[in-house]
Amino acid sequence: MAEEGPVVEIRNVTFTYPPRQGATPVLEDVSLDVERCDFLGIIGPNGGGKTTLLKLMLGLLKPDRGAVRVLGRDPVEMRDQVGYVPQLSRIDPTVPATVLDIVLTGRLSRSSWGAWFGRSHVKAAREALAQTGTEDLAGRAIGTLSGGQRQRVLIARALASDARLLLLDEPTAGVDPHMEQTVTDLLHELNRRLPIVVVSHDVGFVSRHLKRVACLSRRITIHAAEEISSDVISEMYHGHMRAIRHLDECPLSDPGCGHGCDGPGGRSHQQGPEDSPPLDRPLGNSAR
Amino acid sequence: MTQFFYDMGDNPFLLTGLLAGLLASLACGVIGPYVVTRRIVFLSGAIAHMAVGGVGAAIWLAAVFPETMGWFRPLYGAILVSLAAAVLIGLIHQRVVERMDTLIGALWAVGMAVGLLLIKFTPGYQTELMSYLFGNIAFVAWRQVWVIVALDVIILATVLVAHKRLLAICLDQQQAELQGVPVLATNILLLCLVALTVIALTQIVGLILVIALVSLPAATAAHHVARVPSMMFVGTLLSALVTTLPRIAVYGTSISAEPAIVLAAACLYLLSVMVRRIRNRGG
């Protein structure tokens, strides 16, 4: 296991959804490294390829060209070490299951055959619930929870698999605005020991904690956040909002949209990860 | 109603009918919650109706080639074809995205049409198909009771081994896949268990109505309990209730027991919906 290398390496990845021949790629020549202790936000317009990139990291899709390595190996091999938190809307709230049942499915790859999870798995699931502050919900039916509670339970499910990396798809979609803060704070807390990648079209809320922001609209642009001040964030976010408005006006196939993420300020971004500086913010909190 | 118990001493079929209902309740009580949670009621209906093709084929083969195929009972045909249908539907469900429901609806009707056509070609007047189509709880032989016992054992043993994985694909298929569960194989396994459940219930309500007992007791249970194991327990009890009480209640009248069982299951579900509404309104 390459303990020293980046947690995720994405090298010159191009991906086109079949079956249309000659279709415009969803991702084109995308390169990205997720560092240990990283807290990376991937933002971009709908259809910009955010979810596709997540699926490539999970090995649910294979790139047409380029390579994806997770923890130094093939993503499919490392799936059980990656905690994936899907969009809330992907989870059917009517399923007959308690919170503990849901979190236990995060232990599946480590459990043997049989009808029940062993005591050690239940213990691990309860610990994951405790880490997200939802241990008192363990016996509740999943459908009786609020959006914010359900989101934290899904994070617990991802943690239950002893994840070494967290991938989150739109973690605040479907969460009440006043509950967003608790989800954000939880992610900040977890980032002390885990690299986190958040995909969102609305990154304003987490950006306070984000260490880097990647703008994805078929091509990728990495913004390294030298200093996380509210000033920088509001400008970056503002720029992003303008970019989306711009992108909505022209079709995605228009090559002119490739750099739609460039905000008017555009001062702190480089083209491609090779150029991007290492996380120069002291990562002291991760050693705690 | 008391007449039923008086007659039990003279008529052994009354006992075997009750036993068959209770034993089949176990199968549909355990498998129903998966079907309802995974929303594969329609797929299960297709499996049941395609099994008619197997019944027809078996009857036709045994009649046309009595020396070589005389041993081939309709039951064997139903089991074989329903299992094959489970595999086929599992593959279609996974691989075909476009017009998946149309294709399964077509298989549903084609399986049944083949069965009916083959019966038409079979020499002599065929009554056996009727008991497969509409059930025949009044004349359950001991041999058939043992078949249901065997199906129960297979279903329960499989569930005891594979429950975690079966439940995982019902709760969140993508999560199951990420956790290394072979989704296609597990889906097919689940549909095969549905096929065996359908066979176990055939004698009770018939292949045409079987879907009511696979889905309604489990759906009723889901109103009142929040976990799949509890749904299995409550669902089994409710199935046992609706396969026995209506049968006893209509005994000696001109009402057929099989539709009465299905209507009882539907009434119970409706009652449960109303109870839940009143309860929710009351706070």
Structure, described:
The complex is a heterodimer of chains A (288) and B (283). Chain A has 7 helices and 10 strands. With 288 residues, chain A is α/β, with parallel strands linked by helices. A 7-stranded mixed beta sheet of chain A has the order 5-6-7-3-8-9-10, sandwiched between helices. Chain A has a 3-stranded antiparallel beta sheet with strand order 2-1-4, covered by helices on one side. In chain A, helix 4 packs across helix 5 and helix 5 packs parallel to helix 6. The two termini of chain A are 23 Å apart. The C terminus of chain A is likely disordered. With 283 residues, chain B is an all-alpha fold. Chain B has a single domain, classed as ABC transporter involved in vitamin B12 uptake, BtuC (Orthogonal Bundle), CATH 1.10.3470.10. Chain B is 82% helix and 0% strand. Chain B has 13 helices and no strands. The longest helix of chain B is centred in the middle third of the chain and has 30 residues. The termini of chain B are far apart. The mean pLDDT of chain B is 93. At the A-B interface, loops of A face helix 8, helix 9 and helix 12 of B.
* Tally of discrete structural domains of chain B: 1
For the record, what is the CATH homologous superfamily label of chain B? Answer: ABC transporter involved in vitamin B12 uptake, BtuC
Largest sheet of chain B: none
Number of contiguous helices of chain B = 13
Name the average pLDDT of chain B.
Answer: 93
What is the average of the pLDDT values of chain A?
76
Structural class of chain B: mainly alpha
**Oligomeric composition of the shown chains:** heterodimer
Concise description?
With about 290 residues, chain A is an alpha/beta fold.
List its traits.
heterodimer, A: 288 residues, alpha/beta, 7 helices, 19% strand, B: mainly alpha, globular
